[in-house]
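hey so u asked for the seq, here:
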Amino acid sequence: MMRQLFRKCAALFWYLPGFLLWAAYPPMGEMADALFALAPLMWISRRAGVRVAAKRWFVNGFIFWFATLAWMPAIVKNGGPWPLVVLGWGALSAYCAAYFAAFGFLSATMWGCVRGRGYMWRIAAIVVAEPVLWAGLEIARSRLFGGFAWNQLGVIPAVAGFGAPAAIGGVFLLSMVVVLINGTVASIAERMLAPVFGERNHWSRSVETLLPILAIWGMYAVSRQVASVDGESEGDERRLRVALVQRNFPCVFDRRDEDVAAIYGKLISNVSPLQPELLVLPESAFSEVGPFGGANAVRFADWLRRTSGARGVVAGGFRKEGGREYNSAALFTEGACDVYDKVHLVPFGEYIPFDKWITPLQKLAPVGSCTPGELKTLDFDGVKLGVAICFEDTDSAQMRQLARMGAQVLVFVTNDSWFSHSDEAVQHAWQSVARAVETGLSVVRVGNSGVTGTVTPRGTATWLVDERGRPLVDEGATMFDVVRCKARPRATPYVRMGDAPLAVLFALTLALVFYGRFKGGDCRHAPDGFGIILAKLQSHN
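ran it, structure tokens below
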């Protein structure tokens, strides 16, 4: 009876990876957990069958996503119907967990085909196939069905200060590094447990540890070389003095209760003595004063420039044209207003799929049915600004395109008050670090009821947070910084090549996996790996 109880309790071990991976992201932020959280699941993929692996990966993926998206119910207090919010929370978690299951299925299929084919096939599976499969699925999740590019594994090393390879292969190359480390941990566990399975531990198995370490070292060595070459043009740059204003206004405005000019006047007085050149306000900041293009917006922008002493103001708002509404950001300078309309809209937030054809669906969109705009840069005093609104700063492809268009600084404006007093704001801000390293550009970020700050091209972030490292969500705050703007930014390899090399590797790996499966690979259903270990231990007793 005690053995049975022990086995049931020990079986819970297989559900720890989801919790460990959740702990690596905010609110816990135990980033080192990501280096070994997935190792038990990778061990299952190597030792168990396809169905067992897919099931274990899906359950742990759902645990991770359901826990890490626990900020979604915060929208209920801002008018979201709780049944729909909870349904969406569970559905999105299950959808993202399906990518975990896909990795479990593909990796277990691959290992079934690799068994008995020679040691070099095993090395290739560990060093190349496993990381490529994971990164390829992350790209798919970031692009398909509008894309949900949130909390990739690679964000963790970027925030931890080890994001240099992102300049070569983006955040997805960093994810490959994390998977390589987890795979190495799984290989070590396999060697430690080899006697239990009656397997020999030949000295050559140490190659499984050595090669991933050499591969990771090579990635960082090359990325350092890329960074040094990029640094050759450091003398040819401009220092842009930027003031960031985080007012922390509510989602739903009530102009009768607040004196907008008095609130902004008090905040701007903190930074005006520093003589900023550019004043940046968050997404929706101009929604109180009317649409862009209207007289009220122009007057308010002129007042902001005079009060702050800045020559330009960047702020989020909206505009209407021809019966269409756009979520926009505008750059106001003396006598001019240049508007960027958001391109990457949030499905079920800023529009409902097919709502342009089935018009009654438009009433279900929380902020109205928005129309996507066209990608462009905004020119401020000879400096090209690449502006991203809200969720767009998670889209590496769009930021890469802005860099190709000549952007010298990335300006992110967002409104996190929909999820205020939750972990969404910090998770959201972490994505900005990866965007800076990928593009080699400085990032300026203003988050309403979120995280405001700047990020250097090397990934060093300076955030405006409280003494506990939490976002400032109750009272407004300001920040001043000087950011680098290269006159002729050198495009990083990732800006030039994008995800194409990894996508090709992913496609080739998929082709080989399915070729091996349909050509008679040993991909049959096998017992749960933990059950095998317990059975072996009991037989020794």
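The chain has two domains: 13-231+496-531, 237-487. The two ends are 16 Å apart (CA to CA).
lmk if thats what u needed
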